[in-house]
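To fix ideas, we quote verbatim one protein's residues and fold tokens.
>
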Amino acid sequence: MARKLSIMDSGWLMMETRETPMHVGGLALFAIPEGAPEDYVESIYRYLVDVDSICRPFNQKIQSHLPLYLDATWVEDKNFDIDYHVRHSALPRPGRVRELLALVSRLHAQRLDPSRPLWESYLIEGLEGNRFALYTKMHHSMVDGVAGMHLMQSRLATCAEDRLPAPWSGEWDAEKKPRKSRGAAAANAGMKGTMNNLRRGGGQLVDLLRQPKDGNVKTIYRAPKTQLNRRVTGARRFAAQSWSLSRIKAAGKQHGGTVNDIFLAMCGGALRRYLLSQDALSDQPLVAQVPVALRSADQAGEGGNAITTVQVSLGTHIAQPLNRLAAIQDSMKAVKSRLGDMQKSEIDVYTVLTNMPLSLGQVTGLSGRVSPMFNLVISNVPGPKETLHLNGAEMLATYPVSLVLHGYALNITVVSYKNSLEFGVIGCRDTLPHIQRFLVYLEESLVELEP
């Protein structure tokens, strides 16, 4: 049965161009078990492609007859070709992480074929240290970043001996719980309820826009235009690294902050260092757009987008690290307080109102030419605390690979895994040179906050 896309999901299709492919991804590293045969990675590939059927949302493609995907629906691809979507690749010797990240940078820059289900997965062998990698990308109209990570991780085993179906196997459809009906009362809330939601959600945005511009409470269009906020090309540079969660927690305990506070402070410090190296630091604080998930982990398989976004000051104009952290904490406190006072229906309206200018800017070509709504996107995705396995192979690390837009040339996303925070930094390699230096700057920014 065809399922119509929501306004938010359709928006990601409308915004897509050759320079701005609208997919998100993940790069997972796995250990080859001791004593495994030489064709072990080939056996993993066979496990991934030898499936009898494909489950939702992996078997769904876009069907649309109107411009800008105004009538877009998800329909089952009757001619699904698993060999197109799952591919086997190898790194050139010596197979360093450097070569792996270069390959992922190129793969992530390529658009997905809109005539097929909007996802691809690459099994990559030849990684030094007796490892292999799995890079998977999915269109943002198919899943948001949080849902995509949770979906893939939920298809991995917590025990090395367990053998689960491939992540896209049709066997997973049989495991799904039936979706609860909304009921007549919920489906017919009425015009009065809709108008009240518009009034309250719009009121939240108006109230934010009235906040003092020089304060730590931020909203859209309160960000300076910087080197990050130019037009982008289709070229990408991806950098990734793991940080000990224990180190970050210790820094948070030292300064009365959360893991997220320290993570944002690391990003603020790294951005300050990077822009100083480019002689491009603004005297106004950079503003991050931070996605907030509205869906629980067990709802990841439903597809679509269930997020809102908030704006947070990164205190990049403040040289003293502890004062910068305090500004970030103050900004986050205001965000949490406001969201806590809003009902889900108000948040939905607020999300549409604050993201509509972003979509219009991309579609009309104004983004990157006018004042930015924010400076960059920064996301923190909670991940599994236990060790995961792919058909017996232990997952060593998992790195998020997000997207960049015209006017927003950098994205920093982390996902937690066991006792690590896994950082994925992606940007336009032509607009922002030497993005890999962010890894050094993130470490320096953490060191200055440690006990």
Remarks:
- DSSP finds 13 helices and 15 strands in the chain.
- Confidence is low (pLDDT under 50) at residues 178-189, 295-301.
